[in-house]
Specification:
The chain is mostly helical. α10 packs antiparallel against α13. The N terminus is likely disordered.
Length: about 300
């Protein structure tokens, strides 16, 4: 065996990353492994899967608790048992990426802006029908002009963006709107996590719970929602399965809230209803604003 092989495969006396004296498999100073070698293709693949797809053993442990024990994963993390589970942020990002990838591939019609095409039946329609359609088109142009003017009062760039957008054909508008939706919506929803946690904090004022605990709960509960919605899309044609998934999605959050934060069933149900109204309203407004700005800027 060559000196280079000995140097890279045997345990070093000093860490090659920070030069600290070491004993064992990992450096106590920086955490780098002391057993060094050039990774094989298999090890590269494992590292990629472990770090970017999160498909390692503790994912399945986390997934089991997330699916079947509402709130238990949040309690484990709050009580300090963390290493055995996937980090909350990583869990959220994993399932949100999966959801939006499936959503995009599903071909669901999310946005339809003036996409109605003129069929032969419309061309040969009576004069009154043609006149009505012409009036509708003129009204739509008037609305567009008014909107552009209003946006111009806010910022000239918004008016220019609206003018560019309305100059597109109906198909181009739809394609642009869909592209912007899938580009901006994941970020908008992620930015809603601190707001979701704030709503929880307000609903549980006086409980002694810190904001960080509510934020942790927000990540776990929304990761579960993304997972359920992903399974819902995959269960296309399986109506019974879809009903079960939706029922569990509705039942899950108040159960998790009660397990993590305590409180009676009736009070928790009331908190859950207020939380859902606030969250859905804010979510719709945030996504709509994000898409609108994405189209105009």
């Amino acid at each position: 065996m060559t000196a280079h092989a000995l140097d890279t495969h045997q345990h070093a006396a000093f860490c090659k990353n920070c030069d600290a004296a070491i004993a064992g498999n990992y450096c106590h100073q920086c955490g780098q492994a002391t057993h060094l070698h050039v990774p094989s293709a298999r090890e590269f693949l494992h590292e990629f899967i472990a770090h970017y797809v999160a498909l390692e053993g503790k994912l399945w442990r986390s997934l089991k608790l997330l699916l079947f024990k509402p709130g238990f994963l949040s309690r484990e993390y709050i009580e300090g048992r963390r290493v055995r589970y996937i980090e909350p942020l990583r869990l959220y990002l994993t399932f949100s990426i999966i959801f939006f990838a499936l959503f995009k591939m599903s071909g669901v019609e999310i946005i339809n802006i003036g996409g109605r095409s003129e069929s032969p039946a419309v061309v040969s329609a009576p004069a009154a029908e043609k006149e009505k359609r012409a009036e509708e088109a003129e009204d739509a142009k008037g609305i567009q002009r008014n909107l552009q003017h209003m946006l111009g009062q806010v910022n000239p760039r918004l008016e220019q963006g609206a003018e560019r957008f309305f100059a597109l054909s109906p198909k181009e508008r739809n394609d642009t709107a869909k592209r912007v939706f899938f580009s901006y919506t994941p970020y908008a929803i992620f930015l809603m996590m601190p707001v979701f946690a704030l709503y929880l904090k307000l609903l549980y004022l006086g409980s002694g719970r810190r904001y960080g605990e509510h934020f942790l709960f927000a990540l776990h509960s929304n990761a579960f929602a993304f997972l359920m919605l992903s399974l819902f899309m995959l269960a296309d044609g399986w109506n019974f399965v879809r009903v079960v998934l939706l029922a569990w999605l509705v039942f899950y959050l108040p159960t998790a809230m009660r397990r993590v934060f305590g409180g009676g069933r009736i009070v928790t149900a009331l908190r859950w209803m207020v939380l859902m109204v606030l969250h859905l309203f804010t979510l719709i407004m945030t996504v709509s604003l994000a898409v609108a700005l994405g189209l105009l800027i």
